[in-house]
Every structure is written in C-alpha cells, then in structure tokens.
Amino acid sequence: MTDRRIFLHSAAGLGLAALGLPAFAADDANPRKRRPMIIDALGGIDNANLPFTRRDDDGFGIDARSLADAKASGLTAFNMTIGYVFGAGDPYEKTVAETRAWNAYIAQRADALLLVRSGADILRARDDGRIGVVLGFQNAAMMGDDARRVETFAKAGIRVIQLTYNGPNQLGDGSMAASNKGLTPFGREVVAELNRNRVLVDLSHSGEQICLDAAAASTQPIAITHTGCRAIADLPRNKTDKELKLVADKGGFVGIYFMPFLAVGRQPTADDLIAHIEHAIKVCGEDHVGIGTDGTVTQIDDMPAYMKGLEEEVRQRRAAGISAPGERPDIVPFLPDLMGKDKFWKLADLLAKRGHSSGRIEKILGKNFLRVAGGVWS
User: Fold this and answer.
1) Contacts of 112 (CB under 8 A, 6+ apart)
2) Is 218 helix (H, G, I), strand (E, B) or coil?
3) 340's torsion region: left (phi>0), alpha (psi -120 to 50) or beta?
4) Residue 27 has pLDDT above 60, yes or no
5) Helices in the chain by DSSP H: which ranges?
6) pLDDT digits (tens, 9 = 90+) for 161-190
7) Separation of alpha carbons 117 and 15, rounded Å
8) 283 pLDDT band (50/70/90 cuts)?
9) Strand pairing report for 75-81 and 38-40
10) Where is the secretion signal located (predicted)?
C-alpha cells in the first residue's frame, strides 16, 4: 500500500470460538450492528486527499477525517507498511528511523490507535473502540548481511516482514526478476530468525521460486498478505495455484487485494475481487483466505487531480524499474465501485448475495488473519 503511493503522495493459533463475535446474517439490514472482525492484512488509514506538505503535520497523513472514516468502516486492525521498500538511502537506517517514528506516533494517539504485538491486542483494540496497527515491512533489504537484525525489529514491534519487493535482494528474487531465483542461503537464515522471533513471514511481491522455497522452509505458517490469483489474471504480481496451495497446506493465509492486477488490460471492479476470492477459496479452503486491500479507506475527492498524480507515479515507478505489468496511468490502484468507508460492508453484502455463509464471510473479513497471525505471534 504505502510503497505504491510514495510517488503519488509526493505530487492455527487463537481460540476463535471464544471471540464472542455475533453471527453475520445476510438478512440483517444494518451490518454495522454485527461488529464483524475486519482486518486489512495490508492497508492504511491515511487521507490520500491531503497535499504532501500537510502529511507530516497530520501524522503520516492520518487526519481527523480519515480516522473517522476508518472507524466508520468497521476496521478492527490493519498491517501498515513502514521502513525501506525501494529507492535511495540506507535501508537499515531508514527503517530504524521510521520504526521509532511510528512507535512514537501510535503512543501519542493511544486514544484511537493500539500497537499490535499479539492477537490479543487486536481483540483489545476492538473492545476498546480503537484501531489496531500491525507494523510490517515490504522488503527485507534492511537486514543487510545480518539475520540477527530480525530480533532487533521484532523487539521494536514489527510483526510482519515481507522477504522481497518486486526486484531482487540478498534473500532472493521478487516477482519482476526474470531469473526467478529462489531462497538464498542468507534468505534461509532470515526465515529461521523470523520463525524464532515469531514474526509473520510475508511472500507478497515475491517470485514464484522464493515463495515455494520459503513456504517449505518455514516452521511457522506464512502469509501472502496482498495478492491475486494468476489463474484469473495472468500477471506477475499474482500467485499461481501451486504457491497458494502450499501456503494453505502449511496453515498460512492469503489476502486478496483491491488492485489493478485483478484484471488484465482494464479497470477491475468488485466483481473481479469476488472472482479472485472465490478462486482462492477453491484452491486454499475457506480457512486460509482474507483481504489485504493494499489501499486506504477515505475516498478520493478530486478524481481528475488524482489521475494527474497517478500518471506521474506510474512514470516514476517505471523509470525506477520497480513497476509491474498492470500498473497504468489510466487504471486506479483501487476498485472504483468498492471504495470509501462502506467498502467492507459492501464486500460482505456482495459475498452474501453470492451465497457465502455468514461464518465464511466473517473468516474472510478478519478471523482467518487473526487466527494465523495470532498463532505465529503467540
């Protein structure tokens, strides 16, 4: 999420039977009263309408409006990307600085936010009326050549670490690396340290071979927090059935994003999202699928201005060599018919209309992520 908007903003686990969550009934006229557990496995709550000059003043782009929208959406918790993803600067120093800054910010906003270190913290956030913030990385380049840095970041509150971004790093190849190199010896050291420190391994953006290698090597369930299904849309950022099934077989989690990669050559819609969710359920089973929107909640106010910024973002990402097929200046990185503070409620209603049970919908909205991630973190 954050990584895709950097340029744009510049222009087995917990006992869920004890959760006490109400059943999701398709005929209930007011879904907000059901208070389902809603967890965005990769997302944000910033206001994309804010100019860059105001973002620092408003706490990483989180202002009163975006916070209110996030609460109105029913969001319980979200995995927030921080630290180095790509570009200039020392990956380790940049990541240390951002980790400190986010810890300080969440502490300052303890009235509304809660740093998530365990599954129990997500439940506490819900019960307190706050939003849980899971801090995570979308690249492990900051490990340098020292896998022991995992422990440093784990102690600082990091709970999800993605092994690669789109390109290669010292752990292996991302989805846009033609060589499709698997998990390197150092990558295996990092995975072992992630397991030892009970940090969730994320294989989003990875190449196929490193995904398969890491899923096999990990002694803990892993996640692909934000992806789509290659069988539905044949694009590099989406995962093959082989990858999806292995992650599920190891007890892991797959989050489907609300991104351009859900369709080929056109703007995807909510129908495409449903198709990917249903295919993932077919491959993985309903206990291993959820959502990782790769976006924020507050809707865009000025779409023409946004599209100009998007054009520049795409241009710069292509120039930097970090773009992936499917990123285009005429396709927005969200679903136009599933945006704003009602998007999770709309998704739930669409799934119910498709005949999915209330129990399955609750799993997709958040229970599956809580079970898998909470089990790793415990």
Assistant:
1) 67, 71, 130, 131
2) coil
3) left
4) no
5) 2-10, 52-55, 64-72, 91-108, 119-128, 149-155, 185-196, 208-217, 241-249, 270-284, 303-320, 343-353, 358-362, 368-377
6) 999 999 999 999 999 999 999 999 999 999
7) 17
8) very high
9) parallel
10) 1-25
The answer to the question of residue 241 being in a domain is yes
User: Confidence class of residue 36 from pLDDT cuts 50, 70 and 90?
Assistant: confident
Give the separation between CA 109 and CA 240, rounded to whole angstroms: 40
**Mean pLDDT over residues 192-196, rounded?**
98
In a domain, 17, yes or no: no
Neighbours of 269 (CB within 10 A): 15
The CATH number covering residue 173 comes to: 3.20.20.140
Q: Is residue 282 included in any domain, yes or no?
A: yes
Question: From CA 82, how far away is CA 2, in angstroms rounded?
Answer: 8
Total domain count, the chain: 1
Assess if residue 167 is contained within a domain: yes
| pLDDT over 90 percentage in the chain | 88
State the residue for tokens 């389902």. Answer: 36
Q: Cβ(318)–Cβ(310) under 8 Å?
A: no
Lowest-confidence pick of 11-25, 118-132, 231-245, 288-302: 11-25
Listed in sequence order, the residues at least 6 apart from 297 whose beta carbon sits closer than 8 Å to its beta carbon are: 43, 44, 45, 66, 69, 70, 73, 75, 340, 341, 343
- Look at residue 224 and give its three-state secondary structure: strand
57: its two tokens: 């003043």
- Say how far apart CA 102 and CA 100 lie, in whole Å: 6
CA torsion 344-345-351-354 (nearest 10°) is -150
Domain of 360, in residue numbers = 35-377
Residues in the chain: 378
CA atoms within 13 A on the CB side of 377: 24
The first and second tokens of residue 62, run together, are 């989180």
Q: How far apart, in whole angstroms, are the C-alpha atoms of residue 160 and residue 218?
A: 14
Query: Does residue 25 sit in helix, strand or coil?
Result: coil
Tell me how far apart the alpha carbons of residues 194 and 206 are, in angstroms, rounded to a whole number.
17
pTM of this prediction exceeds 0.90: yes
